């Protein structure tokens, strides 16, 4: 006899039929997992110090514990799927599905006691992002989307809303674009609108996905965008590389010496953001 999974007291599926589960059911499971995982991050928030990794970024005790919890829970509910973790690497399995996870995106912001950090869980099917759930615990904002099913935000302040950025008045947002903290060392910027950085890739990306920024530029890895891209695209936005080519998350692997710059854009801003507003240059010391 197969085991039946229940979420919130509701029977969703038999574990033997996990391969046939639809993404809406997956989202409900992952929403519960990510909210529980967030308690680990909140427990250590403002109470830990970080150590530097080989790539110069920080990692904390919270990153390790939170990722271990996510891996354990995802393996429990989706035993056939692979998992790619920022800290622990690839846990390979047999299905064409891979969960790409970032336990704490925005570790520097986390260490500085800024609220712009989050946990990100994305699902890749045959190497393409199809589902994403991102939670910003300190801001109490949850974002999620599944390909063809729309994108949503659940917020303590604004309630639940379906995200649709196709008719946003970007002038009201001062044509804001988001960049990373070291972006100026790698790129030349020629832009007349406002520029900001929240210290977290997912927070920057979600500013575009919810219609509060015209675009975002970043040189990041698979786990940073696996969840954000489905949310953005289902909201009506676009993901491209800086040279105008189509976004391909398989190029965002760790160690890629030619890591491309990703551009996330509102449909009204896509053309101008890809027309020389930003150009890549050899980083300065």
Please describe what this structure looks like.
With 285 residues, the chain is of the alpha+beta class. It has two domains: 4-162, Fructose-1,6-Bisphosphatase, Chain A, domain 1 (2-Layer Sandwich), CATH 3.30.540.10; 170-280, D-Maltodextrin-Binding Protein, domain 2 (3-Layer(aba) Sandwich). 26% of the residues lie in helices and 29% in strands. α1 (23-44) runs antiparallel to α2 (61-77) and α5 runs parallel beside α7. It is globular and about 50 Å long. The N and C termini lie far apart (61 Å).
Topology:
Blueprint lengths: L3 E4 L2 E5 L8 H22 L6 E2 L5 E2 L1 H17 L4 E4 L3 E3 L5 E9 L1 H5 L6 E8 L2 E9 L4 E6 L4 E5 L3 E4 L14 E2 L4 H4 E3 L5 E2 L4 H9 L5 E4 L3 H4 L2 H8 L2 E4 L20 E4 L4 H4 L4 E3 L5
Parallel strand pairs: 5-7, 13-15, 13-16
Antiparallel strand pairs: 1-2, 3-4, 5-6, 7-8, 8-9, 9-10, 10-11, 11-12, 14-19, 16-18, 17-18
Helix pairs in contact: 1-2, 5-7
What keyword list fits this structure?
285 residues, alpha+beta, Fructose-1,6-Bisphosphatase, Chain A, domain 1, D-Maltodextrin-Binding Protein, domain 2, 2 domains, five-stranded mixed beta sheet, 29% strand, globular
Brief characterization of the structure:
The chain has 285 residues and is α+β, with helices and mostly antiparallel strands. It has helices at residues 23-44, 61-77, 107-111, 183-186, 201-209, 222-225, 228-235, 270-273, and strands spanning 4-7, 10-14, 51-52, 58-59, 82-85, 89-91, 97-105, 118-125, 128-136, 141-146, 151-155, 159-162, 177-178, 187-189, 195-196, 215-218, 238-241, 262-265, 278-280.
């Amino acid at each position: 006899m197969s085991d039946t999974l229940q979420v919130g007291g509701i029977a969703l599926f038999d574990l033997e039929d996990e391969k046939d589960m639809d993404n809406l059911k997956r989202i409900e499971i992952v929403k519960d997992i990510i909210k529980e995982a967030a308690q680990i991050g909140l427990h250590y928030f403002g109470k830990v110090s970080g150590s530097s990794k080989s790539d110069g970024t920080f990692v904390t005790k919270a990153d390790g514990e939170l990722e271990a919890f996510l891996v354990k829970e995802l393996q429990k509910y989706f035993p056939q799927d692979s998992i790619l973790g920022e800290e622990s690497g690839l846990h390979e399995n047999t299905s064409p599905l891979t969960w790409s996870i970032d336990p704490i995106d925005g570790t520097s912001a986390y260490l500085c006691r800024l609220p712009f950090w989050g946990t990100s869980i994305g699902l890749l099917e045959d190497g393409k992002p199809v589902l994403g759930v991102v939670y910003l615990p300190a801001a109490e904002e949850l974002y999620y989307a599944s390909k063809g099913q729309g994108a949503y935000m659940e917020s303590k302040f604004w309630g639940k809303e379906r995200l649709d950025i196709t008719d946003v008045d970007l002038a009201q947002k001062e044509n804001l674009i988001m960049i990373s903290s070291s972006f100026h060392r790698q790129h030349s910027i020629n832009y007349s609108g406002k520029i900001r950085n929240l210290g977290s890739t997912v927070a920057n990306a979600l500013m575009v996905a919810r219609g509060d920024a015209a675009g975002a530029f970043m040189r990041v890895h698979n786990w940073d965008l696996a969840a954000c891209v489905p949310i953005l695209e289902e909201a009506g936005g676009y993901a491209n590389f800086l040279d105008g080519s189509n976004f391909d998350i398989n190029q965002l692997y760790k160690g890629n010496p030619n890591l491309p710059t990703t551009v996330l854009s509102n449909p009204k801003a896509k053309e101008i953001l890809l027309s020389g507003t930003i150009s890549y240059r050899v980083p300065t010391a």
